[in-house]
Specification:
Number of strands: 0
Strand content: under 5%
Order of helices and strands: HHHHHHH
Number of helices: 7
Mean pLDDT: 88
Shape: elongated
Structural class: mainly alpha
Distance between the termini: 15 Å
């Protein structure tokens, strides 16, 4: 549930940010986030596993370079697998790490779909709401969100099923 809804609403939020009129380089931002879709998930997960391992670059940077911690953090496991690992691993840290990795993989899908939906909402609706005195939150709640949810409900269901059966992450 957490993985599904954080990816879903995170993607909507990201699409709203990128589609603002004030944002410059929209195509560049979309391309950066779509790279997570273009690179096969298996390769991304292998890279992240190595990056977050006890002897990986992140722990090396935190322990040796920045000296922020004295012992490596065991991001992916409860307990210890090597001599240098933190013996008292935290199961919640591993769960949160998996959720963050899932966000990295899942948000761009929702962002891409929501960006297309946002571009197709008639501007007349927003103009009429502005004339009627609606603020940005009211326009989001009464115009944007119903459009997005109506179109993406099948995706939300598929995403929930995919997260239940996602053993890769």
């Amino acid at each position: 549930l957490i993985a599904t809804f954080t990816c879903y609403f995170g993607g909507i939020f990201l699409a709203l940010l990128i589609n603002k009129k004030e944002v410059k380089g929209k195509k560049v931002w979309r391309t950066i986030f779509i790279l997570t879709i273009a690179i096969p998930q298996f390769i991304t997960l292998l890279v992240l596993r190595n990056l977050l391992s006890v002897d990986g670059p992140l722990n090396t940077m935190l322990v040796e370079d920045l000296k922020l911690i004295t012992e490596p953090i065991n991001f992916l496991q409860f307990g210890s697998t090597t001599e240098t690992a933190v013996v008292n691993g935290n199961v919640w840290l591993a769960r949160i790490t998996v959720l963050v990795i899932n966000l990295y993989i899942g948000i761009p899908y929702t962002m891409l779909m929501t960006s297309g939906i946002l571009m197709n909402i008639p501007k007349d609706l927003y103009e009429a709401a502005t004339i009627d005195g609606a603020n940005k939150w009211q326009m989001f709640r009464k115009i944007t969100l119903p459009y997005v949810i109506f179109v993406t409900t099948p995706y939300l269901i598929q995403s929930f099923i995919g997260n239940i059966t996602s053993f890769n992450t």
